[in-house]
Write a structure and sequence with these properties.
There is one protein chain. By secondary structure, the chain is mainly alpha-helical. The chain has a domain at 68-270: 3-Layer(aba) Sandwich (Rossmann fold), CATH 3.40.50. The strands form four sheets. Strands 1-2-3 form a three-stranded parallel β-sheet. It has helices spanning 42-45, 55-63, 68-82, 98-109, 127-138, 151-165, 170-186, 233-239, 255-260, 276-286, 311-322, 326-336, 342-352, 361-368, 372-381, and strands at residues 90-93, 115-120, 143-147, 191-194, 227-228, 231-232, 264-267, 388-391, 394-397.
Length: 401
């Protein structure tokens, strides 16, 4: 077996974008760097690519060419179709974080909508996370429903996701995506508005060409065949005492139901030029959103990943598996938005990306009922050999920016 083989279908050769600090190791995305002259992929994507520049940075260039006044007119036209005289006319999935707080507040107070925010409860609220979540309603004046799934099942799914995938945040991400359409269907709210499209950060750049979310996520044929935590639901049921109906919060609303009720899922970031730092300023001023008193471990920011204690381990395990973490992600988007230089970003990544999330380590172990020895074994088992080497009793990345 090759000593340097890559896991997770990652490229064997590690490369870094020449504009930001992201590498080509970002999974489930089109982050590879394009060779040849600029314009080589114009026909396929409608976007011109430059050499050694990741797709997210290439899209950032395209954003400068967009007529945002025209995009806002499209937003107003869309909202006018759904604005009601009574009741809720738009549903906004919200964590209480800066981005969703910005989205809900601006939809209500600038565009005259009456939003209902729906929050899939964090695994473990942080103090600042709970404060910001409460402030959205108490200061921002936004209605909210907090949806808290079965804690016993959710902890088990989180444990399985960590053990099998080194991805403890997977069940939360699934629930967060699923709950919007479920509540929209229940409350007869045909418009759902998310904040930014993840294609902004390197996922399939074609997704940026439309304001609507793809229906691929809602394509479900057999509930028992759905995978959560790296296992099929039917296998989780066989090994535990859970019943199929307890998995309801994690099961996507069928496309047939979405089409029947004509539920539309859109991204506000398609219509408004999205800038996370500007969202932070807006949310701070209008919804009482507060940064943490200390920076997030693994990054230099005081307002990223501050809602949920488990979120810190999501970014740490990402660093273990793919060689980049929260600092890389934060620095890359701030470089694209011209908040910092690439040189500053490189220094921040080198200083913070590998930092262990010690503050909530004991909470995390207790939450999923494992000990430190098992934790570190799972972590080391998920290091890809093409990224990591073990020398002088320490793991080191083979290639850093």
């Amino acid at each position: 077996m090759r000593k340097n083989f890559s896991l997770y279908g990652l490229p064997d050769k590690v490369e870094f974008c020449s504009v930001c600090v992201m590498s080509n190791q970002k999974p489930n995305s089109i982050i590879e760097f394009r060779g040849g002259k600029e314009g080589v992929d114009k026909k396929r994507t409608g976007i011109s690519f430059s050499d050694n520049v990741c797709s997210a940075c290439n899209y950032a260039k395209e954003k400068e060419k967009i007529n945002w006044n025209e995009r806002e007119k499209k937003l107003k036209k869309l909202l006018s179709k759904y604005r009601k005289k009574n009741g809720y006319d738009v549903l906004v999935p919200s964590s209480g974080g800066k981005d969703s707080s910005f989205a809900a507040h601006i939809l209500k107070y600038k565009y005259g909508m009456n939003p209902l925010t729906i929050t899939w409860a964090p695994n473990m609220f942080t103090k600042i996370g709970w404060k910001n979540f409460s402030s959205l309603s108490n200061i921002g004046g936004i209605d909210n429903i907090l949806y808290t799934p079965n804690g016993i099942l959710h902890r088990q799914l989180t444990k399985l996701a960590f053990e099998n995938l080194a991805h403890p945040f997977q069940p939360f991400i699934v629930g967060q995506k699923v709950i919007g359409p479920k509540l929209a269907e229940k409350f007869n709210i045909p418009l759902i508005m998310y904040g930014e499209n993840q294609a902004e950060y390197g996922n399939d750049i074609n997704d940026n060409k439309s304001s609507q979310m793809s229906n691929k996520f809602f394509s479900v044929k057999d509930i028992k065949e759905i995978k959560l935590g790296g296992m099929k639901v039917k296998d989780i049921i066989n090994q535990n005492k859970f019943k199929i109906k307890e998995f309801e919060p994690y099961i996507p609303t069928p496309i047939s139901s979405i089409k029947k009720k004509n539920i539309q899922v859109h991204y506000l970031g398609y219509f408004i030029k999205w800038d996370p730092q500007e969202c932070f300023y807006y949310a701070s001023e209008n919804t009482g959103f507060s940064p943490n008193s200390e920076r997030t471990q693994g990054s230099y920011s005081k307002y990223s990943s501050i809602d949920d204690k488990v979120d810190w381990f999501h970014w740490y395990t990402m660093f273990i598996k793919f060689g980049f973490g929260r600092a890389t992600t934060d620095a890359s988007q701030e470089i694209r938005n011209k908040k910092i230089t690439r040189e500053e970003g490189i220094n921040l990544v080198r200083k913070y990306d590998s930092e262990f999330p010690s503050q909530y380590f004991r909470d995390f172990l207790d939450y999923i009922s494992i000990d430190e020895k098992k934790f570190y074994k799972i972590i080391d088992d998920h290091r890809s050999p093409h990224l990591w080497k073990f020398s002088n009793k320490k793991w080191r990345l083979k290639k850093q920016i």
